[in-house]
Amino acid sequence: MGTGQQSFDNSIRLASRLRPLAILVAIGVPVVGFWLFGDTYDRHFGQRRTPNVIRFAHFGTYQDYLLFKNVVADFNETNRDVRVVQEYVAGLSGHYRTKLRQEALVDNLPDVALVQLAFFREHAELFEDLSRLTTETLAGEGEPLTLDPVGLEAFKRNGVQSGLPISGGPLVIYLNKKCFRRVAEHTGEPIGLPPPDWTVSEFQKTAEYLTRDFDGDNNLDQFGFYLPRWIYFLPFIWSHGATITDSTTSHWSFVGNEAIRAMTLYQELALTRRATPRDYEVAQLFQDTAFLTGKIGMCVNGPWFQPFLNETSMRDDYLVLPVPRSSGGSITRVTWDGVVVARNLAQARRELAQRLVRHLLSRNVQLRIAQTGKALPARRDTILDFAAAPQARTIFVSSIETARLDPSWKNFRAIDRTINAHLRKLTSEKDNVSPAAMIKALASDHVITENFAEKPVLKP
Length: 460
Fold this sequence. Notes:
Shape: globular
CATH superfamily of the largest domain: Periplasmic binding protein-like II
Structural class: alpha/beta
Largest sheet: 7 strands, mixed
Radius of gyration: 29 Å
CATH architecture of the largest domain: 3-Layer(aba) Sandwich
Distance between the termini: 106 Å
Number of domains: 3
Helix content: 40-55%
CATH class of the largest domain: Alpha Beta
C-alpha cells in the first residue's frame, strides 16, 4: 500500500509540474498555427463570409501582374466599401487553369477571374449571366458600353452571356527584317520585302527567298517560315475558301478542292519548297525563339508577340503584315480573353463583383490595356488608341474586321490532336501522303466521325 500511495503522490506532483506546460502548449499551438496558416485560411475560407472582400484572379507575365495590380489599387481607392484581393499565377495559362479547376471542385472559385476562351468554353456553366452589363452606361461615361461583337459572341453559351471580352487580338504574319538583309548581303541584290496587300503566291515566293544555305555545307542555315499546327494555320485554310465545320460546328466540312489547295500549300512549304524547318533542324527552339534568333524569317503570331520583341534587338527590325490573300480573301483567326463572375454568389457579393467587372471595362482600364501593345481592348471606342501607340499596329486593327473565331467543339482536345497527327503525316517524307488522301483519311478518322453529327460526303 505504501508503495502504491507513493507512486500516486509522485504522479500528482508530476502532473502539477506539467500543468503550466500543458496550458502553454494548448495556447501556443493555435497561436503558432494561425501565424503560419492564417493568411491561407483567410484567403480561401475566411473571405467566403466576408462580404466586402472580392477575389480577383488572373495569370500572365510580370507586366500583366503590374498592370492589374495598379488596376486593383485604383478600384480599391475609389470603392472604400469593398476590398479586392489580387490572385496572380505567373507564366502561361496551364497552372492557372489547374488552379481554377481545383477551386471549382470545392466550390471556391474566385469571385471575378480573367479566362481564356478555351477554358470558358469548357466551363461556361460555372459563371454568372452578365448580359445586363452589355447595355449599361458606365459611371462617368456618356455613352452605353460597346464591346467587340465577335468577342461578345465568343463568351455566350446557349444564349447566355456568361462572360464578357476584355482583350484579344488577331493572328498576322511577322517578318524578320534581319533575315531579309542577310539574304540581300549574300546575293548582292536589293532587299525583297513583300507588299502589304500580298497574295499567297507572293508569300510562297518570300518563304523560298528567305530559305538559304549561306556557307555551302548543304545544310540550311535560315528558313522562310515556321509551319504551325492547324489552329495557327486556320487563316490560310479560311483564306483558301475552306472551312473545318459548318456554321453550326456539328458537321465536318473540311473536304473539297478548297481544302486540298490549303493542304497543298502546307505540304509544299514543308517538302517541295523546303521553306520550313524540320524538328531536328530547330532542336529546342520554339517559334518565338527561332524568329528572334533569325533561324526563321516569318511566323504566324498575335499582338502579344510585340511587347516581347520590343524589349530586344528586334525592336526596329520586324514587320507585320496581314494574312496573304487567296481565293477566299484575307481572313484571320481572332482570340479573346474574357472576364467572368462565379455563379451562386450572394446578391450583395455579386453586385460588388459586377462593380469590379465594370471597372475592368471602363475606358480608363481599356486604354491601359491598349497602351501595353499586348492585346486589343474589347471596347470599340478604344481600339484606335491601340493603333495610335508608337509601334505601328494598324495591321491588327484592320485584320480584326475580317477575323473569325476558331470552331467551338465539346471534345476539342481530342479533335485538335487528331488534326495535328494527320498534318504530321502530310509533311512526312516517309509517309508520302497526298493532300487529297490526307483530307479523306482525316474525315474518316474515328475521332471525327464520333464527334460530328453526320459523316461528310467525301469528294474524289
